[in-house]
Amino acid sequence: MSLPPLSPEQLVKPRHFELRMSLIFATLFVPLGTHVPYFPLWLEAQGFHAEQIAVILAAPMFLRVVTTPLLTSLADRARDRANVYIALVAASLLLSAGYFLTPSYAMVLAVSLALTIVWTPHSPLADSLALSGVRRFGSNYTSMRKWGSISYLFANVAGGFILSATGSGAVPVIIFVSLAAALAAGLLAPRLGRPRRASPLSATDIQHVAPKLLNPYFLYFSIGVGVITASHAFLYGFVSIYWKSIGLSDSVVGLLWAWGVVAEVCMFMMFTRYFSSFSVVSIMVMAGIGAIVRWIAFPLVWPLGLGVAGFFGVQTLHSVSVALVLIGLQKMIGETVSEERTGAAQGIAYFSNGFFMAVVTLASGPLYHRFGVDGFFAMIPIALIGLVLIGLAARSAPQRRIRR
Predict the structure, then answer these.
(1) Of the ranges 138-142, 153-157, 272-276, which one carries the lowest mean pLDDT score?
(2) What mean pLDDT is reported for the chain?
């Protein structure tokens, strides 16, 4: 399916396009880099128990699986997606102030649910704007997007040092201030008009072509990826709480999170040289095995006296259990899904990842409450189920790749 021709207005490149998009990505990922590792610590400091923390973390995941494709689809119909991005960032800033209210369970849950609706679309909308620049003006996507990874790392590390000095009560303040910075950058977003094709998460696009993707290979593979990804839910929800419980400082916690991201980025950089010849099934099997090794090792590091160095070693496996999953999924879609269906394929994969992550996150609260760090062992059978699904996908794999 060919793209519609560019209008004369669409051929005009906004001034400093790459610089403005780099600034958007840089500010976009600071609140995310604070929320993922430190928000559970703030919840625990407010007196919420593990089951309540799990609900507060999981409920927004269920909700955003539905709302994010809807909002990105609506953004495609707006006069300019930049205006939608600005409106959503402004709404996120206002709603995040709700965390400054008396933190009752009902209040925090309500704020988290409302916030996820307007916060989660930030990244796909920014990607949509950046990719329009790639198609229209030949911009380099990675040169813009890398600033998001850099700022995420910065937020991990800086957040840990800030919390060491101030306590976890600073988490809502950091999120609020960083969203304010994201809004300021968003006001500089380049105006590009409507996209020539619906965004990768377009609900209309998914509805139109998804039935063509419902073949055993794609379904087994997508669900398998979602299940392997979901085995990380216990890590994302409770590892910061665990690290604090054994006496690690906030700054060390931040460095451990950052090291996982560094390992992930290193895999992205070295993948083509060392792994590009592997089949997608082989890549995903390596990722699943990496996840299983990680969940076996995590509960043993501290009892075996391996200390902080042991946790850094385990976090290095992020390059396998996370990066290879992300790469393998995109490699599978690129090899077996035709171009006009890639948007729907991405949307189905997003739904699978989001749904299973939410389910396992919800179960992680009771697991941590009862078993503590040994709850990681419960992630092993989940990763194994994912590997079985990948094996079923291999049995039904297409005999030839999509023509290019």
Answers:
(1) 138-142
(2) 87
Which CATH superfamily groups domain 14-201?
MFS general substrate transporter like domains (1.20.1250.20)
Q: Which of 109-118, 171-180, 198-207 has the lowest mean pLDDT?
A: 198-207
Give the residue extent of every domain in the chain.
14-201, 204-397
Whole-angstrom Cα distance, residue 174 to residue 162? 9
Same fold, 14-201 and 204-397: yes
Q: Which residues contact 181 (CB under 8 A, 6 or more apart)?
A: 27, 30
pLDDT at residue number 265: 87
Give mean pLDDT, residues 188-214.
61
pTM recorded for the entire structure: 0.85
Candidates 3.40.50.620, 1.20.1250.20, 1.10.10.650, 3.40.50.300; correct CATH number of 204-397? 1.20.1250.20
Calculate the CA 267 to chain-centre distance. Answer: 17
**How confident is the model at residue 199, as a pLDDT?**
52
Number of C-alpha atoms within 13 angstroms, CB side, residue 288? Answer: 24
Residue 327: count other Cβ atoms within 10 Å of its Cβ. Answer: 20
